[in-house]
Design brief:
Chains A, B: Belongs to the SLC41A transporter family. Chains A, B: One of its GO terms (cellular component) is plasma membrane. Chains A, B: It is found in: Cell membrane; Membrane. Chains A, B: Keywords: CBS domain, Cell membrane, Magnesium, Membrane, Metal-binding, Transmembrane, Transmembrane helix, Transport. The structure is a homodimer of 494-residue chains. Chain A has three domains: 24-180, MgtE N-terminal domain-like (MgtE N-terminal fold, Alpha Horseshoe), CATH 1.25.60; 185-310, CBS-domain; 323-492, Tetracycline Repressor, domain 2 (Orthogonal Bundle), CATH 1.10.357.20. By secondary structure, chain A is α+β, with helices and mostly antiparallel strands. The N and C termini of chain A lie far apart (91 Å). In chain A, the strands form two sheets. Chain A has a four-stranded mixed beta sheet with strand order 1-2-3-4. A two-stranded antiparallel sheet of chain A has the order 5-6. The first copy, chain A, has 22 helices and six strands. Helices cover 67% and strands 6% of the residues of chain A. In chain A, helix 12 (198-208) links the parallel strand 2 (189-192) and strand 3. At the A-B interface, helix 1, helix 3, helix 12, helix 13 and helix 15 of A face helix 1, helix 3, helix 12, helix 13 and helix 15 of B.
Chain lengths: 494, 494
Amino acid sequence: MLARYNRGAFPTPPMTENLENQSQDDLETHLAQVQSLLARMRLVEELVHRQGGPRQDLVENLVHKQNLAELQRKLDQLHPADVAYILEALPLDERLLVWDLVKAERDGEILLEVSDSVRESLIQTMDKAELLAAAESLDTDEIADIAADLPRDVIEELLTTLDAQKRALLQSALAYPEDTVGALMDFEMVTIRADVTLEVALRYLRRLGELPDQLDKLFVVDRDERLIGVLPLKRLLTTDPEASVAAVMVEDVVQFHPEDEAQEAAQAFERYDLVMAPVVDAVGRLIGRLTIDAVVDYIRESADADMLSMAGLKEEEDLFSTVWRAAKNRWMWLAINLATAFVASRVIGAFEGSIEKLAALAALMPIIAGIGGNSGNQTITLIIRGLALGHITPSNARRLVLKEIGVALLNGLVWGSAVGVFAWLLYDNPALGGVMALAMLLNLLVAALAGIFIPMTLERVKRDPAIGSSVLLTFVTDSMGFFIFLGLATLLLL
Amino acid sequence: MLARYNRGAFPTPPMTENLENQSQDDLETHLAQVQSLLARMRLVEELVHRQGGPRQDLVENLVHKQNLAELQRKLDQLHPADVAYILEALPLDERLLVWDLVKAERDGEILLEVSDSVRESLIQTMDKAELLAAAESLDTDEIADIAADLPRDVIEELLTTLDAQKRALLQSALAYPEDTVGALMDFEMVTIRADVTLEVALRYLRRLGELPDQLDKLFVVDRDERLIGVLPLKRLLTTDPEASVAAVMVEDVVQFHPEDEAQEAAQAFERYDLVMAPVVDAVGRLIGRLTIDAVVDYIRESADADMLSMAGLKEEEDLFSTVWRAAKNRWMWLAINLATAFVASRVIGAFEGSIEKLAALAALMPIIAGIGGNSGNQTITLIIRGLALGHITPSNARRLVLKEIGVALLNGLVWGSAVGVFAWLLYDNPALGGVMALAMLLNLLVAALAGIFIPMTLERVKRDPAIGSSVLLTFVTDSMGFFIFLGLATLLLL
């Protein structure tokens, strides 16, 4: 065999160069058109419900059918990614109406493009036969991407309909954990042998007739499918066709193993400006490829997930999900926050005697806690970022601690004096001002240390420092802020 | 002229396929090696300083030179992006030592790769001649990328050394605002005429001998340089060479204008899985191209910028910047937070009489304010994301408001009851529990409405809702939380 063109043997999606629309403005126009068609349909329905009568019914039916046909025509012209965008922006009832109008053969591609939560809402309305048909229109790696949302019996039936090679591919793709290269890779690659000439390679490509998207190099493999190099298309195009693949190929190649972390692969793609890279097993046999579009989707999704989890949302939320689902998505973090707020409240409770004597303490204490929390969040954000980029190592951690302590001292002097003077003037009580300034300085130091050690400890015990760091920090700065300020006031003022 | 190969006429960076290292682990190994070499050098220096004497000096010099040579060898083997990574992770003194060892001809590429703040620290140590040499080793679009950090006289001298065409390119690249397609595009493209055959195109590419990175299509232009289509390399490779470019090219092409927002172009790249796209002027003349690597860098940088600004950092901060610079980077937001905390403090101050009578109010009020802030932040995060993705439109905003009010009511009943019972049991005061529950419910409603209307208002007045939304929200939920709780308590309990 000279070479192998492995497409996972499923049909390919259409050429992405052929698009009707391109800019966000266009997209929003399409969305607005769909929305106004839907509004028109609602209006007609309402009119009929109000008036009734058999002739009205006839007219309404006619108008309704016209509107549906117009909507369907509109949808048929749109790229699957754009249909997905429109589905995301529609409330559930309208979303399902539009989903019904989408041609069945496009279901698979569109399910791939929508977000997890919206995909769930669409899959719920499909029966087993529809789901099977949709899945069968996809490549194996794409089926693996949506498999988590498919009912178990659909997956099982799907496995029985695939031939042995594709079944093995799908099962291996399903076996890799979510954040690994294995979960992102696909199987659409073109391989070639090292001992042929470029002329032969060119003729071979022409015989294939079509190439996968995002393909910027051929993989050069030996008799045992082991990767021995890559042949960039630009070298193939610019080198004398008489040369052999072996003479032109690049041997030192950025490559990945399926169990590598997706995060590290993404950093390598960014760092080395890659478009695609081979994925090999432990003995160097080629098993798939990773492409920039999968990496970009991963980067976007993990940035989104970080942002959502930092705000205390369990997972991505369908903008139009039911109140009940939305509330459940937010409860865990609210419960945790409530628990930490209770603790902080008990810290204050311990000083109720002092507060009764000097109610000004109650008015001033949130300033100490709040600024501590803000300042600690600045530190924690820099540390989380430094950890993610690999810039923080055991040998430079000491310097970081010194720097953050320095910043906390400087801020403590500047802002501590400011709030001290404020408290002094407001309550005409210089001692209260002094306690305020000292408490601010101390809580900023606590915030700096917590801002460094919380994420570094989470990282050391192999947990994602982006998740939960902030809640822990606020807990520390609140409780300690109240304790330091009320404690100092009780000791020095009362 | 059959076709044009425009490289901005500057030399190209080396092939990115040819790399020594690939994974984050490898990178961290390199960093550790560099760090241990630096540590060894410090040790030798310290020994000599302690012992002194002329012979010692000789030995030290020898060892020092050996170490330097070893370090330099190490650096020479690394990809510019990897040297950049090491520079980012080193404290200032060691960073500058390493920077001195980097071969001058690689300065330009490495300056491109480091972050803005680290680039500043490196440029400060370079004289005008070094900066000119570094800049001249780059493409015009790359010079534009670092121009903001170059001294004005270097830019001016640079402009005089460039020929007319390149000067015009650089000036136009410098003219586009940071977040536009014009600022991200480059000028490395290959153009071709529609009336030639693929055979001629193939021969032409072979004559060029080298192609730019990330090139997956040729641009087809007419006599006036107007873009009339694109010829994907994969079509060029798989179609009969006798066919004409006109017959094979794709005419309906995703294309951008230099003044388009980078954000929208990035979404189009993600949505349509693009590797590269043409940039044209108002009359359709080709002026540059946008590539996926520039888009990925933009996505990463803007996600980082969002994260930093949400945490209240003015800009990206060098991990090892001086205490003074770091403090200045954080002051603006701390000052704003302090101002809002003062207002909240005065709200409490207005109820000092009530607190004196019932100190339990002081202990409970942070719970109301805190949970309101957390809940509002969940809403605001979903809204900011929906706005960024274009999912929120005037016609669906009403539904969103209803959903968030529903979630707030549900949460208010659930969590309000919980804190109400907590307060009742703790203080053996059922009326206090009732006030607590009611205040929680009301503040969650305030939080939901603020969480929707703050980002939507910022968006409507054309400001980035990601910046400042959170501070405003916390201000509202704190002040209103204190006001509602203490106000209700004063009315109903005292």
